[in-house]
Amino acid sequence: MSTKNLIQLQINEENKILENGDIICKAVKQHPDFQEIYCLYLEDKQEKRILPVVIGSEQANSIIHIIANKKTERPNTHEIFVKITNNYKINLTHVIINKVKIDRKGYGVFYSKMFFENKENNKIEIDSRTSDAVAMACKLNVPIYCFENVMKEASYNIKTYKNKKEFKSIKELEKELELCIKSENYEQASIIRDEIQNIKNEF
Questions:
Q1: Helical ranges in the chain per DSSP H
Q2: Model-level pTM?
């Protein structure tokens, strides 16, 4: 597949390693209520857009360690996959985020493909979770692309997104609910109450 008309995304590689060995990574943020849920931020530098992708803790930790160039005690799934492709002379050329579905909470569920080429120049494409595709792209330093229609549906302007929280904690939502009830804004209160219940049911 040609990448000529696709949007190339980048991952913010700024990070800080604390004295206890923990890594603070600007590209990955943890949910305030659920330790197993993270958000990965991919940037379109040219158009100043950001694409937030909800991922699990295992994928988040793998991406954080890859970005920080920090080795794990035992090889993770992505490191094993890299060794296999290297042994069989198969190269990952790029990954594409090709589809998104917006769930009932407003989060994007993304679909991706990884594109490979072997020593005989045969091209192979494999469906993949976006978190795995991004982790592999970071590990092997290959481009991450996205369709424009996906960006239009799920991305945000970087400047406006700085003032938006991808994850609101239940405590924050409960405080907003209380204010809505006090101001007799019952319609908004009902929306917030549903959001709180959805979070509790989902996670």
A1: 57-67, 77-87, 130-140, 148-154, 158-161, 170-182, 186-202
A2: 0.75
Query: How many Cβ atoms are within 10 Å of 78's Cβ, its own excluded?
Result: 19
> CA nearest 9: which of 142, 194, 159?
142
Spatial contact of 108 and 52, defined as CB atoms under 8 Å apart: yes
Assigned token pair, 77: 């799934």
User: How far apart (Å, rounded) are the C-alpha atoms in residues 92 and 86?
Assistant: 10
Question: Quick one: DSSP state of residue 130?
Answer: H
pLDDT tens-digit profile, the chain (203 residues): 667 779 999 887 666 555 555 656 778 888 766 677 888 889 998 888 989 888 888 888 888 888 888 777 788 888 899 899 989 999 999 999 999 987 655 667 899 999 999 989 999 999 999 999 999 998 999 999 999 999 998 888 887 776 555 556 667 778 888 888 888 888 888 887 877 776 665 44
